[in-house]
Design brief:
The chain is α/β, with parallel strands linked by helices. It has 13 helices and 11 strands. The strands form 2 sheets. Strands 4, 5, 6, 7, 8, 9, 10 and 11 form an 8-stranded mixed beta sheet that branches. A 3-stranded antiparallel beta sheet has the order 1-3-2. A hairpin with a 6-residue loop joins strand 10 and strand 11.
Length: 326
């Protein structure tokens, strides 16, 4: 990292605003354009300058480009870390800059709320046929067998199934668990799951509604946490996995079943997917940052999509990085 391009990159109020937004979360270029009230080509030029200076990093996903800060304190080069500290101080000391940043975050929250409402409406419309929709993308029996194998032969203890949907995975794994918590944001989905799971012993299953970015459970409450075709709906998967790590006991297991990275853009536009799958590198980074030690992934090739199963163990004495939100 060199000082001249860094200082030139910071010598613009729009780029300062972009850096403050990226300090909280990874964002799509289109989201930045909406928040800033500028055209996407103009924002892309600002992004190019920030990336060339080493202050931000791009990640392409289908037709979207996501940006993240490259200068988080503790992982950035010294000049980058100094720039991050300067921007933190500027927002603390400069009242007009702080007000502008706060307004940007409010706009971002509104944009994200609208997207989440669209996804929630989709779930409500399709709750009854959710199993059928999911079967269009993966052979369920094969995936379920591979998930059971990936979790090993040991008892699962207290199991949290995040984004339980119709309760299919909770039902599959319930015989190996001492207690099952089926968790979902959609009341319609939980209604379907309740009907599916009603044959299980009374008191052995809890159905809880809530948001996977703010799990309503104490630290280390579960021995096993599962995400089955759920994480691709997360605007901030790092925040979701940080919460999962928080509620997983040291030595506990996590299993993430999701699509390998792909370019099926219609899944974003027609089926509310926020992410077009994950590469092994992405998932390893996400799990490691959250405080998990990952095992080799299992791949289940399909047509047109490949399903991956990533498993990991919660490391002892490792606190996951706390995700910031706007």
């Amino acid at each position: 990292m060199k000082i001249d391009p860094l200082l030139r990159a910071l010598a613009d109020s729009t780029r300062l605003r972009i850096m403050r937004l990226l300090s909280a979360m990874e964002l799509a270029v289109g989201e930045l354009a909406q928040v800033l009230g500028q055209s996407q080509p103009r924002v892309s030029r600002h992004v190019r300058i920030l990336c060339d200076a080493g202050l931000a990093e791009r990640r392409k996903e289908g037709s979207w480009v996501f940006l993240r800060s490259a200068v988080a304190e503790g992982v950035a080069p010294p000049l980058g870390a100094a720039a991050a500290r300067l921007l933190n101080l500027a927002e603390a000391e400069d009242a007009s800059f702080a007000a502008r940043c706060a307004e940007d975050r409010r706009h971002l929250a509104a944009i994200r709320a609208a997207r989440e409402a669209t996804a929630a409406a989709y779930f409500a419309r399709h709750a009854e046929e959710w199993d059928t929709i999911r079967s269009l993308h993966s052979p369920d029996k094969r995936v379920e067998a591979a998930l059971a194998e990936a979790l090993g032969s040991q008892a699962l203890g207290r199991l949290l199934d995040v984004g339980t949907g119709t309760g299919r995975i909770a039902e599959l794994l319930a015989p190996r668990a001492t207690q099952v918590t089926a968790f979902d944001k959609s009341p319609e989905m939980l209604r379907v799951a309740r009907a599916r799971l009603q044959h299980l012993p009374a008191g052995s299953v809890d159905l809880i509604q809530g948001d996977f970015t703010a799990l309503p459970f104490p630290d280390a409450a579960f021995d096993t946490v599962t995400f089955h075709q759920v994480l691709h709906y997360a605007q901030e998967p790092e925040a979701v996995l940080a919460e999962a790590a928080r509620v997983t006991r040291p030595g506990g297991a996590i299993a993430v079943v999701d699509f390998a990275a792909h370019d099926r853009e219609e899944l974003r536009s027609q089926h509310a997917h926020a992410r077009l799958g994950f590469s092994d590198e992405q998932m390893l980074a996400l799990l490691t940052e959250a405080g998990f030690a990952a095992a080799p992934a299992t791949a289940l090739p399909g047509k047109p999509l490949t399903v991956k199963i990533w498993t990991a163990r919660r490391q002892a004495h490792t606190a996951p990085a706390k995700a910031l939100s706007a």
